[in-house]
TrEMBL record:
<dbReference type="InterPro" id="IPR027417">
    <property type="entry name" value="P-loop_NTPase"/>
</dbReference>
<keyword id="KW-0812">Transmembrane</keyword>
<dbReference type="GO" id="GO:0005524">
    <property type="term" value="F:ATP binding"/>
</dbReference>
<feature type="transmembrane region" description="Helical">
    <location>
        <begin position="152"/>
        <end position="169"/>
    </location>
</feature>
<keyword id="KW-0547">Nucleotide-binding</keyword>
<protein>
    <submittedName>
        <fullName>ABC transporter ATP-binding protein</fullName>
    </submittedName>
</protein>
<keyword id="KW-0067">ATP-binding</keyword>
<dbReference type="InterPro" id="IPR003593">
    <property type="entry name" value="AAA+_ATPase"/>
</dbReference>
<feature type="transmembrane region" description="Helical">
    <location>
        <begin position="239"/>
        <end position="259"/>
    </location>
</feature>
<dbReference type="Pfam" id="PF00005">
    <property type="entry name" value="ABC_tran"/>
</dbReference>
<dbReference type="InterPro" id="IPR017871">
    <property type="entry name" value="ABC_transporter-like_CS"/>
</dbReference>
<feature type="transmembrane region" description="Helical">
    <location>
        <begin position="271"/>
        <end position="290"/>
    </location>
</feature>
<keyword id="KW-0472">Membrane</keyword>
<dbReference type="InterPro" id="IPR039421">
    <property type="entry name" value="Type_1_exporter"/>
</dbReference>
<dbReference type="InterPro" id="IPR036640">
    <property type="entry name" value="ABC1_TM_sf"/>
</dbReference>
<keyword id="KW-1133">Transmembrane helix</keyword>
<dbReference type="InterPro" id="IPR003439">
    <property type="entry name" value="ABC_transporter-like_ATP-bd"/>
</dbReference>
């Protein structure tokens, strides 16, 4: 609860203060109402008590909707703050291991539930429910205190009896989502939800007839969450029986004493209401909206720390001085993987040369690219730039020195010009980059997404040309190392060879690393390296490797034969 209160305070101090004041004010009103009713009955002159009663009644009517408004606003602020924190936690770490960790993506699903509302109401809504339940619990305590002013034991007895019920119900209302089963169901529900609503999935869902499957998966996992909640929150019968007995005795005793007490009718009316109102102690504060909200706040806190830890990379202060790359006895395993992807890899890439990397699927080509971009660090060995370990370089400067077209490059839903230079560049440079890659598909200001007014979409190959233009624009801005991971896989054969030849012309002087399965492109590189079993199996120019008659030649001949046959 402390974490939650702290999160409210940080979300919006003014609203949080108003929210708590309103909780307390509203909690006091039922006791005040009981007192005023008693006074009205007892008083000879009814004017004062009537005004008092009317004021309390009016406050009850005004404060409740006001509290509702404040709750919704505060909930929206808290929700935005949590979203900001999650986005910062995800994008902040310099590495990407935290985004690929199964444990952390599970945690992210728990944290995001406050906003998706798959297994509970979204925060803006649940804040009102939380407010109501807190008011109720505190109002019950206020009535018990009022009752204690008549007979201390009556307040204590009824207060304790209803508190016991509170614990029973609380136990039953509490549902820990922090279990592998719940996380799994939440992730599957979120995943299938995205499949249903995101356009890229829309094609396959329809073509492969997966609509029913998607709905079934979503419903199944949602139902699973409902069942798990039901199992966790079922009332235990024996506990219920005991509590009912305690309540019957306590209430019987208090009301019997009240009935037989020789006090005035007004006093009796006040304390009878207080005795009834104490029951709110049992039911307030139990609202099922509170635990999920607390868990979302806690999960966001935990993610902040754990993502920073898992995605951390050591960062030096040296400024990169050159673009020659060297892998020295590099070994690399993904976290929790039992087999290394790279194992004793040695490779020199002289500055200003181009190197193509080939190998079967899963040989570790993209992994090599990730190490050059320093998205991961080697498990052992070093990657060096001009003889300097990348770990000792200033990371921002290093990243400014490298540009890449990744296999799964991003298709930004932004204007064409921002797709070429996301952080800005002169119009002249943007146009030059687009011209060099034959990517002038739209007006510079046209958004590359059909989801926007006047927006357009591109074909796979056209998108690749735009991604190549982005890399060229980065070279213009100072990047000296260019990494291309299957950059032309979606271009037609003629376009591919032309595009790569032109790209190399425009990046003359850069160190270029190309990953490709298309040998027409590969052969244009100064040198080619065949990756096998985590090591460099062959290294040389196209002619040298063909003459060596090894793995490269086998792969090249296979592809050439297929084209000749076609
Ligand atoms: N984030 C990851 N976590 C765990 N294992 C991974 C991860 N990414 C890749 N791998 C594994 O590492 C190995 C090498 O993958 P990588 O993507 O580097 O291969 P590749 O040579 O680029 O393959 P392809 O030609 O299919 O693109 C594969 O066995 C893959 O399953």
């Amino acid at each position: 609860m402390g974490d939650f209160a702290g999160a409210l305070w940080r979300a919006h101090r003014g609203l949080a203060t108003a929210w708590w004041i309103l909780v307390l004010a509203q909690a006091m009103l039922p006791a005040a109402f009981a007192y005023e009713v008693g006074s009205l009955i007892a008083a000879a002159d009814k004017t004062g008590p009537l005004i008092g009663l009317g004021t309390v009644f009016l406050l009850m009517q005004i404060l409740a909707p006001l509290h509702g408004q404040v709750s919704t606003n505060l909930g929206a602020h808290l929700s935005s703050r949590l979203q900001d924190r999650l986005i910062t936690a995800a994008t902040g770490p310099p590495g990407i291991a935290h985004l690929e960790s199964a444990a952390l993506t599970g945690e992210l699903a728990v944290a995001r539930d406050f906003d998706l509302g798959i297994s509970g109401p979204p925060l803006a809504l649940s804040m009102g429910l939380i407010a109501g339940s807190l008011v109720e619990a505190l109002a019950g305590a206020g009535q018990a205190i009022l009752l204690a002013t008549w007979h201390w034991w009556a307040g204590a007895l009824l207060g304790t009896a209803w508190l016991a019920t509170h614990w029973l119900l609380r136990d039953a209302a509490r549902w820990s989502r922090d279990t592998p089963e719940v996380r799994y169901a939440q992730r599957r529900a979120e995943y299938t939800y995205r499949l249903a609503v995101d356009p890229p999935a829309g094609k396959e869902i329809r073509l492969f007839g997966l609509s029913d499957w998607t709905v079934r998966q979503f419903v199944h996992n949602r139902q699973k969450l409902v069942d798990l909640r039901w199992q966790a929150t079922k009332l235990r019968q024996r506990g219920l029986g005991v509590t009912l007995a305690v309540l019957t005795v306590a209430n019987g005793l208090v009301f019997w004493t009240l009935a037989t007490d020789a006090t005035a009718l007004g006093v009796k009316a006040t304390f009878a209401q207080a005795a009834i109102g104490t029951a709110a102690l049992a039911f307030g504060g139990l609202n099922w909206a509170l635990p999920p909200a607390i868990e979302a706040v806690k999960a966001a806190d935990r993610l902040d720390r754990s993502m920073a830890e898992v995605g951390a990379l050591p960062c030096g202060s040296r400024i990169p001085s050159g673009t020659a790359l060297r892998f020295r006895h590099v070994r690399f395993s993904y976290p929790n993987a039992d087999k290394p992807v790279l194992d004793g890899l040695d490779l020199d890439i002289p500055a200003g040369t181009s190197l193509a990397v080939v190998g079967v699927n899963g040989a570790g080509k993209t992994t090599l690219v990730k190490l050059i971009c320093r998205l991961y660090d080697p498990t052992a060995g070093t990657v060096e730039a001009d003889g300097v370990d990348l770990k000792t370089l200033d990371l921002t400067s290093w990243r400014g020195n490298v540009t890449a077209v990744f296999q799964d490059f991003i298709r930004y839903q932004l204007p064409l010009k921002d797709n070429v230079a996301p952080t800005g560049a002169s119009e002249e440079d943007i146009r030059a980059a687009l011209a060099a890659t034959d990517a002038e598909f739209a007006d510079l200001d046209t958004v590359l997404s059909k989801g926007y007014d006047g927006g357009t979409d591109l074909s796979g190959g056209q998108w690749q040309r735009v991604a190549l233009a982005r890399a060229l624009a980065a070279v213009k801005q100072g990047a000296g190392i260019v990494v291309l991971d299957e950059p032309t896989a979606q271009l037609d054969i003629k376009g591919e060879t032309e595009a790569f030849t032109r790209f190399l012309q425009h990046t003359k002087g850069c160190t270029t690393i190309l990953v490709s399965h298309r040998f027409g492109t590969v052969r244009q590189a100064d040198r080619i390296c065949v990756l096998d079993n985590g090591k460099v199996a062959e290294l040389g120019s196209h002619d040298e490797l063909m003459a060596a008659n090894g793995k490269y030649r086998t792969m090249f001949d296979l592809q050439a034969a297929r084209f000749q046959h076609d």
